[in-house]
Design goal:
With about 350 residues, the protein is mainly α. The chain has one domain. It has 16 helices and no strands.
């Protein structure tokens, strides 16, 4: 019997059968952190504390989500069923949201429409472009003897190569590649290892230290390193910074991912079911985040820049992402995020 499809990760099929609440919980919490990072960004211009929290979250939230995506891509091959899932769960949503984001910007800013460029992912669409490339290359990474070291070498070479360009956001695709490849090579027992009680306790001082280090480093470090979408030349850094920073950023991400996963509940809780809708929340929250920038919501009220404003923004962002992952929202937008498209594929005997 084929493994069930996980809607939160388009086209994904785990190696084993059944849904584990741990992974749905992890996906939901990771996607909430994505929303918090985007919502906090305007606050970082006037608050060093907000910037420290922002950098801490950016150090691991997308690497964690990508690693889990890799884990649930272990069963991907080029069989007709898997190719269909790749098309309906990644390619079609990419095309729909690329067009939707472009027209939304035109209406929201009341400006001439930007040209639709399918090779230059707009805002959040970079993840779908990356997932498409990673999934297509999955058979390669599963057959290479030293897949993880090779993926690191590719990430470092990409950081040294400004000519990689922006087509399909390839710079970011290659720099984040090691997290996906590591996920491909993980087994269920690896995740059980991080659920030990002593790790949950140790995660508290580790995260506290990470925030303190981020607070110290925030005025001294270019935050663009955390986005993984620029070469060292574009960051005006020396060539030796590519391997050093890639390995340092990976080390920080790895430690924080372990601590994050140690805190993830292992049992079914109130938000477990929302883990199946994380891609909906990811793609849809971009409209509200961009609207808040274009309509200058953060500048409308001075109190938003105060500590109480940061708390309000945090609660609203978490609530927004939670609502966007719910079953009613998924039913409304299933045509765009998970279209069935039976008519587009040949029927197999």
């Amino acid at each position: 019997m084929p493994a069930p499809r996980l809607p939160g990760l388009p086209g994904a099929s785990p190696a084993g059968a059944g849904r584990d609440p741990f992974f749905d919980n992890a996906k939901y919490l990771a996607i909430v952190l994505v929303a918090l990072g985007h919502a906090w960004e305007p606050l970082t211009h006037t608050s060093r504390a907000a910037l420290a929290l922002y950098l801490t979250v950016y150090a691991f939230h997308m690497p964690a989500f990508i690693l889990i995506s890799g884990y649930f891509s272990r069963g991907f091959d080029l069989s007709p069923a898997k190719v269909k899932r790749l098309v309906t769960g990644v390619v079609v949503p990419y095309l729909i949201f690329e067009v939707a984001y472009t027209f939304f910007q035109h209406r929201a800013e009341d400006a001439p429409p930007e040209p639709i460029t399918l090779l230059n992912p707009w805002y959040l669409n970079w993840f779908l472009a990356a997932l498409f490339v990673w999934r297509l290359t999955t058979p390669i990474w599963q057959n290479l003897r030293w897949a993880v070291p090779v993926s690191f070498a590719i990430a470092i070479l990409a950081a040294l190569s400004p000519e990689v360009g922006n087509d399909l956001d390839l710079q970011r695709v290659l720099q984040f590649l090691p997290f996906f490849v590591i996920g491909l090579h993980m087994e269920p027992h690896h995740f059980r290892l991080v659920q030990r009680r002593w790790l949950r306790i140790a995660a508290v001082p580790v995260f506290a230290t990470a925030i303190a280090v981020a607070y110290w480093a925030s005025p001294r470090m270019n935050s663009s390193w955390f986005y993984h979408n620029d070469s060292v030349q574009e960051l005006a850094a020396p060539l030796w910074a590519a391997p050093v920073m890639q390995l340092a950023m990976f080390g920080c991400a790895a430690v924080l991912i372990v601590c994050f996963l140690a805190w993830v509940p292992r049992r079914t809780v109130w938000f477990t079911a929302l883990g199946a809708g994380t891609l909906y929340g990811f793609l849809l929250h971009g409209f509200l985040i961009k609207l808040s920038r274009w309509w200058e919501w953060y500048d409308a009220y001075a109190w938003i820049r105060e500590p109480v404003g940061g708390v309000v923004v945090t609660v609203l962002a978490a609530g927004m992402m939670t609502a966007l992952c719910t079953p009613p929202v998924r039913r409304v937008f299933r045509f765009a995020v998970e279209p069935r498209m039976e008519w587009a594929f040949r029927k197999r005997p």
